[in-house]
Write a structure and sequence with these properties.
With about 400 residues, this protein is an alpha/beta fold. The protein has helices at about 15-30, 50-60, 80-90, 105-110, 130-140, 185-195, 260-270, 280-290, 290-315, 340-350, 375-390, and strands at about 35, 100-105, 120-125, 145-150, 165-170, 200-205, 230-235, 245-250, 255, 260, 320-325, 330-335, 355, 355, 370. The chain has 11 helices and 15 strands.
Length: about 400
């Protein structure tokens, strides 16, 4: 019997598990301290009334024989797949419902999509990067190369034609940096992928936070349907972090190595996934209809006001940062040339504020820290006051 020894190449602890351990140890030793968590990007606003209403109605349906539902459709109920495709079509990204696959989370799909690709591919990921991109490719035995983000390129690395890649990860708005690609920049990535015969894995989990005239989907870019797969989520946009609902869009025309990737993902999901409950899918549908979108927009505005509070405080301190305008994260340079974990410890111990050390997102993240805008207003204001008190 053999095991997957690629797991031995992973770092011992997942980033957020390490943060959780540090915070638990500190609070246990200092029970009188009020710690404000602005590290993990979990939402704090409740589900929208339209979502709750739809889910309650669905619960009632499940209690009546005539409307009871058992196993769901393999790729998601048609009503939800249609709502997702309509959402995309309204913003100029032409997607058919047949190209939509419903799931329980973008994190799951970003990892599971590797099932349809052979092991040993060269995978290009941005640095800093969401750790799941890196860890899952290490598990799969792929070769990883990095596109370095930094202050000079505003943490928006661009393709290098001298670098060969088979799979390309793009996250826009970016987690952790909050940076967002323009249409012109994404077109360069699409052209690069096409020339390389590569596939872009595009994570749009934070697209609903974009308020400027910037792309919210890779499929708004000409040529993308021949080289890209997109992952979307209701976790942040509609507060589904605990409810769980996401989707993956695989164009029907997308082919590589003589195989149709839409058919491969269909087959994978048929075999390994058993779909979300009917009740959740009805709630997700409601979140994407006009009433639900309007109610979720109120919560998005709430979080973005928090982001402005954070951005304003960091600006007053004269610290360089990105994000906070089209994304719910503020990515700041650690003052006084502190290392990421040293600044994390300083904020935790002196300000009782939890951030996310940039070093946990890759080598280019060293010397930076991410603050999340998903706390409530009162805690965000208090946290920034504490930060200014110790740094001002």
């Amino acid at each position: 019997m053999k095991v997957n020894k690629n797991y031995a190449n992973l770092k011992e602890s997942y980033l957020f598990a390490t943060i959780g351990k540090k915070v638990r140890e500190y609070t246990a030793a200092n029970p009188d301290k009020s710690v404000i968590r602005m590290g993990i990007g979990d939402v704090t606003r409740p589900l929208a009334p339209a979502v709750i209403g739809a889910m309650q109605k669905a619960v009632s349906e499940m209690g009546v024989a005539e409307t009871f539902r058992g196993y769901g459709d393999d790729y998601g109920y048609d009503f939800l797949r249609t709502a997702i495709s309509d959402y995309y079509n309204k913003k100029g990204a032409e997607i058919s419902s047949a190209e939509v696959f419903v799931s329980d989370g973008a994190k799951s799909d970003v990892a599971n999509i590797l099932d349809i690709f052979a092991s040993g591919n060269t995978v290009l990921v941005p640095d800093p990067v969401y750790p799941v991109y890196v860890d899952t490719n290490i598990m799969a035995g792929n070769k990883i190369v990095y596109a370095s983000g930094n202050i000079e390129n505003n943490f928006l690395p661009m393709p290098d034609e001298n670098v060969q890649a088979d799979i390309i990860y793009i996250c826009s708005p970016n987690n952790p940096t909050g940076a967002v690609y323009s249409a012109e920049q994404l077109k360069k990535w699409v052209d690069y992928a096409t020339a390389q015969n590569a596939v872009i894995l595009y994570d749009s989990a934070y697209e609903a936070f974009i308020c400027e005239d910037l792309p919210t989907s890779i499929f708004q870019i000409e040529g993308a349907k021949n080289c890209a797969i997109e992952f979307g989520s209701l976790s942040k946009s509609a507060g589904f972090t605990g409810t769980r609902c996401a989707y993956t869009i695989v164009p029907t025309e997308l082919e590589r190595d003589g195989m149709n990737l839409h058919k491969l993902w269909s087959r994978r999901q048929n075999t390994k996934y058993n779909q979300l409950p009917y009740i959740i899918q009805r709630g997700a549908e409601a979140a994407l209809l006009p009433e639900g979108l309007a109610q979720s927009k109120t919560d998005i505005d709430y979080y973005m006001q928090n982001a402005k509070t954070i951005s304003d405080a960091i600006s007053e301190l004269g610290i360089w940062f990105s994000g906070g305008k089209n994304a719910p994260y503020v990515w700041l340079k650690c003052p006084n040339n502190l290392k990421s974990w040293d600044f994390f410890d300083l904020l935790l111990e002196k300000a009782n504020v939890v951030g996310t050390p940039g070093a946990g997102f890759g080598s280019q993240g060293e010397g930076f820290l991410r603050l999340s805008a998903f706390a409530n207003h009162e805690n965000t204001v208090l946290a920034m006051k504490r930060v200014k008190d110790i740094l001002g």
